[in-house]
Design a protein that fits this description.
Strands 1-2-3-4-5-6 form a six-stranded antiparallel beta sheet. It has a two-stranded antiparallel sheet with strand order 7-8. The protein is globular, with a radius of gyration of 16 Å. The chain has one helix at 66-77; strands at 2-5, 8-17, 21-29, 35-44, 50-56, 62-64, 102-104, 108-110. The protein has one helix and eight strands; from the N terminus they run ββββββαββ. It is mainly β. The chain is 10% helix and 42% strand.
């Protein structure tokens, strides 16, 4: 999912899954298309969903917030898998594999669409 207004990209949601985990990453951008924060919502098979927030630190690196560190610790204490929290993140829009499907000019425009399997 891609949300924007005028020529400004607001956020992108990327869904990822493995054999035993599912994750939704909601990326928020600044005007230079750098990722400023990510909310990762996910779960391991048969475990509850939980959210973890990553925010850009002073060095420009996306790091788990202190509140999210506590959330992960509670999940681990409850014996829920949390390995998907460490899955890689994109640092800016140029790293997204589908970046070529979106153009930026006077307005943001989706230039190509992916065909869905029927």
């Amino acid at each position: 999912m891609l949300r924007y207004h005028a020529a400004i990209l607001d956020d992108v949601m990327v869904m990822t899954e493995s054999e035993d985990a599912y994750v939704e990453d909601s990326y928020n951008f600044d005007r230079k298309l750098r990722v400023i924060s990510v909310v990762r919502r996910g779960h391991y098979l048969n475990s509850p969903f939980f959210n973890v927030t990553f925010a850009r630190d002073r060095a420009g690196k996306l790091s788990v917030t202190p509140a999210s560190v506590q959330i992960v610790a509670r999940q681990e204490t409850s014996l829920h898998e949390t390995y998907f929290v460490d899955w890689p993140l994109y640092r800016n829009f140029a790293q997204f594999p589908f970046k070529g499907l979106v153009s930026f000019g006077k307005h943001v425009a989706v230039t190509h669409q992916c065909a869905m399997d029927k």
